[in-house]
Amino acid sequence: MGEVSDDNSNLSFLKRIATSDVPLLKEYGVNGVVVALLLAVVTPVLLSMMFGKKTKQRAVRANVGGEEGFAMRNSRFSSLVEVPWEGATTMSALFEMASKKYSRRRCLGTRKLIKREFVESSDGRKFEKLHLGEYEWDTYAEAFNRACNFASGLVKMGHDLDSHAAIFSDTRAEWIIAAQGCFRQNLTVVTIYASLGEDALVHSLNETQVSTLICDSKQLKKIPAISSKLQSLRHIIYIEDEPVEAETLNQVKHLTTLSFTEVEELGKTSSVDARLPSSSDTAVIMYTSGSTGLPKGVMITHGNMVATTAAVMTIVPKLGMNDVYLAYLPLAHVFELAGETVMLASGTAIGYGSTLTMTDTSNKIKKGTKGDVSVLNPTLIISVPAILDRIRDAVFKKVGEKGGLTKKLFDFAYKRNLASIEGSWFGSWAPERMIWDTIIYKPIRAMLGGRVRFVLCGGAPLSGDTQRFMNICLGVPVGQGYGLTETCAGAAFTEWDDTSVGRVGPPLPCCYVKLVSWEEGGYKISDYPMPRGEVVVGGHSITKGYFSNEAKTNEVYKVDERGIRWFYTGDIGQFHPDGCLEIIDRKKDIVKLQHGEYVSLGKVESALATSSYVESIMVYADPFHNYCVALVVPVRQALEKWAQNSGINCEGFEELCQNGQAVKEVQQSLSKAAKAARLERFEVPAKIELLPEPWTPESGLVTAALKLKREQIKAKFKDDLDKLYH
């Protein structure tokens, strides 16, 4: 039976485990552990002979109108889901009803700031460190009252009800309070990424004619420099998350400027009747992250938001009042806003954090202070793939550094659990997994608080390796979602009991997903064994279009003869036999080389990103050449460690990135990754350049979801790309 046989090498390995310093195993002795683990190995063989896995049909063909294609709907519902419960047709109605239903439950939590200090590094740079305390909570009833007060205060301070209000802030409780306040007066909220550059910020505020800007203290500092360019801005409301200098306030004294607390107090002492919206009213104009130039404002209705909410509530198992959700992704991203709306509708406690304070060792956490996850102990988190990739890499790196028996034990347990998840006959079973969970995985789970039971992932493709890591080391299902701002995040979502990787699940119950043949790219719905084509989404989650951009709206939105609204995503997908969707390509990422070969840039980047040296990578293909090239931001620690072991001395990281041997080492690593992914020779970058500075949302080179801004990177590194082709 191969690995499960009674051979000397396996017995020797198990005995070494039993005689190690692991207390739980040592307690039972050598013979007890050997017998227990051998039984654990043999038992799954017998069980798998008795019970086989059955394929579950997750989506069925849908009879829809519009362009000819292969359409599917969720198999669990005979018609599309539109509301989470009767009467909850708008964001304001949903929040009000939830606040009455869960009135005394914890709703919005923020950590108490005990002390803020700055430390200086050896090179003279200053870093902010925060000493944070416990979470302080508003109940659902208190959060609703704050939203009502804010709504009244907004009107009383002079906001024109026919104009828009914008929120320009990091994710925090006040963001949701402000948004819900606006909804109660049927005001459209313009959402703006906190990382947005000046030009894009001015464009967004002017295009939507924003008269009131709600921002945090950090963003307030950006306003004086651009205030002369803002045509319609009349009022500023700032959140007092850190001290605001008098000079900053003086520079915007031509605008009515009040603190968030002052607006709440103004509304509390002088309330105004609500002016509630309808489901077809625009709740949000959400600016996309601008991966291809200036951002576009997507008009999302109240009906769109509650339809997505209703659909996702059917996906997350046992979602409810006992759950605790960690909120840290940008609320200006539809993924996070939809996620928090789902939590509010479910009576879940939402605790706010940030990527810089999340763990005990995060950059902004003062030594000795606990990170957000350690204090909150969440049961649910939403993440983008890049963050999960970093968690995986950190764990594997730590295990690799320990080496010896620790690494062998980890590798053995990982292999056994992987086989179990993937349905292999030699996989582990429950009693054995309990042993591994106790001695190996418990410390890893503690990295996220120790209680996470479900992870929602979206914003970009999640690698199969990372999904398996989460399944094994965190012991949780990963629901990988697929959607766009234009579909209000709602398109497809993997279900909790689907252990496959690389897919994004069946259509959400609020929409249809249709594949339309793209003849030019060679993707057709008649393809065998799976239909392929451009992904088109239709139903209740499809938004109204782009603000002040009718031409672009008409280009990608269509309404069929039955009145169903469809959005053409530009992504290429295929349907598996069980109805699950897999995204396999993107129209804009396909480049035809000089000799006629097609290179899918996104596919190649995903494959090469598995190299341990790659932090970020952009592949570039010039159609006038027969090969592609790549810009690589290397993992600093990994490359410096290689240099140290290789005896290479450089003045700094920038010099190391220019070192020929370092470039050759990274290129060889990329070639190995390409070979493992079975890329064609022309898909492997013939030349690369290493760049020392990381690509961040603040640098304008990646979106808030850490997706590449391809055009911006090409423009910034034009000379570098030209050199690679000469």
Briefly characterize the structure:
This protein has 726 residues and is α/β, with parallel strands linked by helices.
What does this entry look like structurally?
By secondary structure, the chain is an alpha/beta fold. It folds into three domains: 144 residues, no CATH class; 286 residues, ANL, N-terminal domain (Rossmann fold, 3-Layer(aba) Sandwich); 132 residues, GMP Synthetase, Chain A, domain 3 (2-Layer Sandwich). Helices cover 37% and strands 22% of the residues. The protein has 24 helices and 28 strands. An eight-stranded mixed beta sheet has the order 4-3-13-12-14-15-16-17. Strand 3 and strand 4 form a beta hairpin. Helix 3 packs across helix 4. The longest helix is centred in the first third of the chain and has 28 residues. It is globular, with a radius of gyration of 27 Å. The relative contact order is 0.10.
